[in-house]
Amino acid sequence: MKKRLFFPVILLIFICACNKKVSIEGWTEGIKIPPPASVEKKPYTSTHIFEAKLRKTEFYTCMALTTACPKTCGASGEYARFEVTAYQTFLVNGEGGNEKLSSFSLHLSDYYKTDYSLNYVKFIRNLKNGDRVRFYIDYVYDPTKSVVFTDMKVLGFEKK
Which strand (E) or helix (H) includes residue 17? Predict the structure, then answer.
């Protein structure tokens, strides 16, 4: 349980420290995304800056494969589903994350529909189906471990 809280807390601190409203090329609201030319490769990371359209927000119940399912496993809850429409930047450094996304999902709440305290949740709750959003996301992985898990970090988002 402590591991589940550690990442969102660290991510929230990082996002709050970088939180700046911007208006670049008609994009407003959200957390500033750097110009694509300034984004550099990072070790064991794939970086995606893309434009997406919100398809829907829906509640998902997990497959019930553990004794914690569906209430406390962490997979059940509300998800925002996006369709990726255009890429501005795609950088890969390593073997993982070497494909562009065609769809994208963000977990917004738990089984009891309690919103997570990540600041993109409130932003996405204010969107309507069809709204265009630009995301800046890093997929970070650690190849030194026997089992490699990918950690997604939402570093920026803007609404058109």
Answer: helix 2-18
- The answer to pTM > 0.90 is no
- State the pLDDT confidence band at 13, using cuts at 50, 70 and 90: very low
Sign of CA dihedral 28, 29, 32, 34: negative
Nearest to 137 by CA among 45, 16, 24: 45
CA-to-CA distance for 81 and 152, rounded, in angstroms?
Answer: 15
- Does residue 71 have a pLDDT over 80? yes
What DSSP character marks residue 124? H
Residue 143 confidence (pLDDT): 74
- Candidates 124, 151, 121; CA nearest to 46 is 151
Domain extent, residue 112, equals 2-159
Nearest to 135 by CA among 55, 49, 56, 53: 49
What tens digit of pLDDT does each residue of 131-143 get?
A: 999 999 988 887 7
For tokens 């996304």, name the residue: 101
CA 78/CA 59 separation, integer angstroms: 4
145 vs 27, more confident: 145
Of residues 160, 100, 103, the one with CA closest to residue 133:
160
Distances (CA, A) of 117 to 46, 70, 136: 25, 20, 19
**How many domains is the chain built from?**
1
